[in-house]
Amino acid sequence: MTVGIMLLTLVRMLLTYGIIHMTVGIMLLTSVRMLLTYGIIHMTLVRMLLTQGIIFMTVGIMLLTLEMNMISLRTANIPKGISPRPWGDEQKKITLLLFKINLNMLKKERYNKVIDYFQEHMPVAETELHYTNPYELLVAVILSAQCTDKRVNLLTPAIFERYPKPEDMALATPEEIFELIRSCSYPNNKSKHLVGMAQMLIEDFKGVVPDDIKELQKLPGVGRKTANVIASVVYEKPAMAVDTHVFRVAARIGLTTNSKTPLDTEKQLVKYFPEELLPIAHHWLILHGRYVCIARKPKCTRCGLKAFCRYYEKEVYSEK
Q1: Annotated catalytic residue 89
Q2: What is the model's pTM?
Q3: 80 included as an active-site residue
Q4: How many helices (H) and strands (E) in the chain?
């Protein structure tokens, strides 16, 4: 009996040790699987970093080779007794060139993020001016210069009722138009521009608003911004109208760099925005500037662009 009990106790101990070893084995197996998973993730990251590194090294070598060839050609033509420029100057050129390439990459990335944001949160963006035909929009845009769309929309119903066609406005006098737009900014000049615009439409364009930007700018009161608005909104042409909102917002976000004039801003925006998105991109920037990125105190806390906004990064986030 005693021997049997001892054997039974030994069996129990062996079973207990077996269970313990099995538990440890399962834990080790789980750990191995976790390590393998992390290993695969780390290997993937390493491959990505290596690929990017190879790309940058390749570009750098190509640029360096090109610059060395240029130096060799210039050195070969230097007369005896004259020392070539020091390598330091050439090195600065290469560094500057690589820096510019990096800036362009960063700018393209910012444009892509801005486009993705607006396409998701503002898929439909249109002018807030009220109109039913190209003539009415042309009148409204001329009136909107340094004036709010809200104010213009209060004035245009009476104008369109009295002058529904350019032929009707062409017969009016500036004084008559003035009475209808006196609450608008610069009513004297605008009343003259509207009459002159209507008369030229009849005389030179047979009453049809032209779709060509250069032709549009021949009309009194129509500058490049107004011409771009008509071309993009009415005729859906790839034009970028730059008003105060577009100029300000593009600079703040970082879509433009060192832009001094509306034309500079237009050129940079046209360069980076896809052609088919230019008409709606104009409205994206205007509406964002009108309701979020306002002039005096931008509403950065509610802005969905702050994660990649140059102004927020420098002026707001850096102060926290």
Answers
A1: no
A2: 0.66
A3: no
A4: 13, 0
